[in-house]
Design brief:
Length: 288
């Protein structure tokens, strides 16, 4: 199978859910999605929202050439439907594959705009997923206004300290339908997360946001789990996205103890790290 273009993006975890205050923030983690544009037909089984079709439609409507007789091939480490930005990773990687195949030399702003438009068209987000798309292709964190274009969306940004381990606790499929109105009911808790983020306390914001999301979704189990891991040495813990996955930040030396605790709770655990910026002078990151 001939590969015409290839794109890589990554999943992420939430720092501030955009449904709470209308502003969102996510951070990329080392769980990758690779999308290849290939010659001939190729079926993709795990795209229930039709994101890849939406990416192609938005690509063409944006004035870029439609490749003839092509299909997609996807390889992803990002669990689907868990709040780990799998849709953003898929959309961004697909745009990057088209960019690679077409030699269009798009900027990150262009990539984010096309990926966000495709996700909105596919109906796979209640917030517009602008922060998720930025996390999928860039290191560090960005507080964004999702109703703005990508060039005007970033309100605050910063790096995350090196050396943390990120544990992802998977609790099975999402059972409840997420209602955006329930998030606005937790405005005070989301304001606490926003205040921490504005002060540069990203991990405090992650925990406060996780508490707000758990309250908004009635997820009492998530609150118990987060309290338990923080009592055992985690630096931060909170529901990612709208759940049900929980992201836990810890030092590497404490990760095994926390993993054992989570397994005792009956959860599958993925070990990851935050996407880090490349030192000046080194080759560009494969994350884009």
């Amino acid at each position: 199978m001939t590969v015409l273009g290839r794109g890589n993006a990554n999943g992420g975890v939430s720092v501030l859910h955009a449904a709470g205050l209308g502003k969102g923030c996510s951070i990329g983690i080392e769980l990758s999605t690779e999308v290849s544009l290939v010659a001939g037909e190729a079926a993709v089984s795990h795209d229930e929202h039709g994101i890849l079709d939406s990416v192609m439609d938005v690509w063409v409507e944006s004035g870029y050439p439609r490749p003839d007789d092509t299909g997609w091939r996807v390889s992803s480490e990002v669990p689907i439907g868990q709040g780990l930005k799998s849709s953003a990773a898929l959309a961004c990687a697909a745009v990057l594959a088209l960019n690679d195949a077409s030699w269009t030399a798009l900027s990150d702003f262009d990539i984010v705009d096309i990926a966000v438009a495709a996700q909105r068209r596919a109906g796979c987000s209640i917030t517009g997923c602008m922060d998720d798309a930025w996390a999928a292709i860039s290191p560090g964190w960005k507080l964004v206004d999702p109703i703005q274009s990508s060039r005007d969306s970033v309100l605050l940004e910063g790096d995350i300290d090196d050396g943390f381990t990120v544990l992802i606790a998977l609790r099975g499929p999402r059972l409840a339908k997420v209602q955006s109105d329930s998030f606005t009911d937790q405005k005070k808790l989301f304001e606490r997360a926003m205040a921490s983020l504005s002060n540069g306390s990203v991990l405090d914001a992650m925990s406060a946001n996780g508490m707000a999301v758990a309250a908004a979704t009635g997820d009492d189990e998530a609150l118990r789990i987060c309290n338990s891991v923080i009592a055992r040495g985690a630096i931060a813990a909170g529901v990612s996205g709208s759940g049900p996955a929980i992201s836990i930040v810890c030092y590497e030396q404490g990760s095994e103890q926390l993993t054992e605790l989570l397994i005792e709770f009956g959860m599958q655990v993925i070990h990851s790290r935050f996407i880090e910026s490349e030192p000046v002078g080194e080759e560009a990151s494969p994350w884009g």
